[in-house]
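Page 42, continued from yesterday. The earlier attempt failed because a stray header line got pasted into the input along with the sequence. Redoing it now with the clean sequence only.
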Amino acid sequence: MSAITAIFRLNGAAVEASAVHRVLDRLEHRGIDDKGVWTEGPIGIGHRMRWTTPESHFEKLPFRDPKMGAVITFDGRLDNRKELSEALSIGGGPEAQVTDSEYVLRAYEKWGEACLPHLIGDFVFAIWNERERTLFAARDPLGVKHFYYYYQPGR
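This time it went through. Structure tokens are written below.
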């Protein structure tokens, strides 16, 4: 089980990479296989990776798709990869090398926030939409993956 984190400063103040690293250091027990941080302006996204599926070995999170203008971090497992592959026309390589986070990002690209009913599995993710400057975070309907957030008015 991995861990994800996101810091979004609504007042526009920049998020320093060191702030995200501090959070990830506290979550080291959740993922020892890899660690990643991405920051830009008021948003900082981090990931602690624990490889649990064959395709998770290909994950490098957070992942930024410059064409789409989005950044994703993801923890979980999708159980309907075949259906998603067909619905999203994902191809161009061995299916085992397409990561679950890529499926989620493509689902978000196609359906926006209405992507959730199309995702079957245990997951939690956060997507930063650079163009709209919005943070979309969600978890599986049963809440198998932990999701905590904190909102402080004015910050």
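Notes: The mean pLDDT is 91.
Reminder to self: strip header lines before submitting.
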